[in-house]
Write a structure and sequence with these properties.
The structure holds two protein chains of two kinds. Chain A is an alpha/beta fold. Chain A has nine helices and eight strands. Chain A has an eight-stranded mixed sheet with strand order 1-2-4-3-5-8-6-7, sandwiched between helices. Chain B is 44% helix and 22% strand. Chain B is built from three helices and four strands; from the N terminus they run E-H-E-E-H-E-H. By secondary structure, chain B is an alpha+beta fold. Classes of the chains: A alpha/beta, B alpha+beta. At the A-B interface, loops of A face strand 2 and helix 3 of B.
């Protein structure tokens, strides 16, 4: 594709095509979108974040897609979200209002080494690609590598496990880059980390049964977001805290962001409920992204309307 | 290049805590090469596992012997991947 209008959003794409998409989007909308490189993956790939901004010194809202590389519908949805933002800004009053007050940060390929590996070697790869000294098994689960109950139940100490937590919190450059970015920014107000599959919207905590202090508000906002999501295709979602809704998981992304003071911290599990799992057919990319966008808008609007 | 010919994805439904325990033990059998997409946690949640072809017989026998319900959710993972690949190539041509 020569521009982002030609880009085929109904198909999965390789890493370079998505990197090119980001560059095209920035070139086409340089007044609204810029690309920030927040770090490098273990194999030296750039960790690109798209920044959608209409002014200086704004608080931020964060979205990331695809920290688990095999969850392809997630990265594909991230591409669609990016195009949606530039298309709707100035047309959709709600998004325009958000962007007139907040910056939106979108990391589409959160685990580029893993994504490349799923494209070329092992479609079912989930983790990062950093070797583990003393083990023939490669990679760390980047959603168990955060400094939030790190090392607790619901993560593994075995490098061969799909949920290997890594040698220490933030040991993975893909994780550390986000940690450094969030800390240096200092004013991120919402943080949504997007996965697939199993159709859930989850809020902290995963590492402890102690309810988050904002649980009532987070629960009500999740209900609202899912109501919006379901209004489009009636896709059934469940919602609740990670530990009560799915399972105990220590060292997870949004537990860390919540403990950093980012109240509106959520993690999504997009389509489907298992019929295809990680091999969701490409014709479901756009419907998945469309319905998810409604929920994201609900979260972002609520964040804007409830400053803290 | 690794392929997934003959790999199946099973959706397992545990009916009690004893079955969850059995499935956790199964998940620790590294030689089977199982890839749990949804891990055995509690009865109310489904368990999805990709089973390599070489382990299918053993796993299905284990489930049947222990009266653990399951259905084959994906008959052949590679078939789906091939279809996905065809769609991607078609997109590249366009």
């Amino acid at each position: 594709p020569r521009n982002t209008d030609d880009f085929v959003y109904t198909n999965y794409h390789n890493l370079n095509t998505i990197y090119s998409f980001m560059d095209m989007l920035v070139a086409e909308h340089s007044d609204l979108v810029s690309k920030i490189v927040i770090g490098q993956s273990y194999e030296g790939r750039p960790l690109n974040v798209l920044r959608f901004s209409t002014g200086a010194n704004r608080p931020g809202m964060w979205l990331d897609t695809g920290i688990h590389s095999r969850e392809w519908v997630t990265q594909a949805s991230g591409v669609w979200f990016a195009k949606k933002i530039v298309t709707d800004y100035g047309r959709d009053p709600a998004l325009t209002d958000i962007l007139n007050n907040y910056d939106i940060y979108l990391e589409i390929i959160t685990n580029p080494d893993g994504y490349q590996y799923t494209q070329t070697k092992d479609r079912m790869w989930r983790k990062t690609r950093k070797p583990n000294p003393g083990s023939s098994c490669v990679g760390v689960d980047p959603n168990r590598n955060w400094d939030a109950g790190f090392g607790g139940a619901g993560s593994s100490s075995s490098p061969c496990s799909e949920t290997y937590r890594g040698p220490s919190a933030h040991s993975e450059p893909e994780v550390k880059a986000i940690v450094d970015f969030v800390k240096s920014h200092g004013n991120i107000k919402s943080f949504v980390s997007i996965h697939s599959y199993s159709q859930m919207l989850l809020y902290p905590y995963g590492y402890t049964r102690t309810p988050a202090k904002d649980q009532a508000e987070l629960h009500e906002l999740a209900r609202k977001a899912i109501t919006e999501l379901q209004s489009l295709y009636n896709t059934r979602y469940t919602y609740g805290s990670i530990i009560t809704t799915i399972y105990q998981a220590s060292g997870g992304t949004i537990d860390w962001t919540y403990d950093q003071g980012i109240k509106y911290s959520y993690t999504f599990e997009l389509r489907d409920t298992g019929r295809y799992g990680f091999i969701l057919p490409a014709n479901q990319i756009v419907p998945t992204a469309e319905e998810t966008w409604l929920a994201l808008m609900a979260i972002m609007e609520h964040t804007k309307n409830n400053p803290y | 290049k690794e392929t997934f010919e003959g790999h199946q994805v099973l959706r397992i439904t545990a009916n009690n805590e004893a079955q969850i325990t059995l499935l956790k033990e199964l998940s620790e059998q590294g030689h089977l090469g199982l890839d749990f997409w949804m891990e055995p946690i509690r009865e109310s949640l489904p368990i999805d596992v990709r089973v390599p072809f070489n382990s299918l017989q053993a796993v299905r026998a284990f489930l049947a012997y222990n009266h653990i319900e399951y259905l084959v959710m994906i008959e052949d993972v590679q078939n789906l991947l091939d279809e996905e690949q065809r769609q991607m190539l078609k997109s590249h041509v366009i």
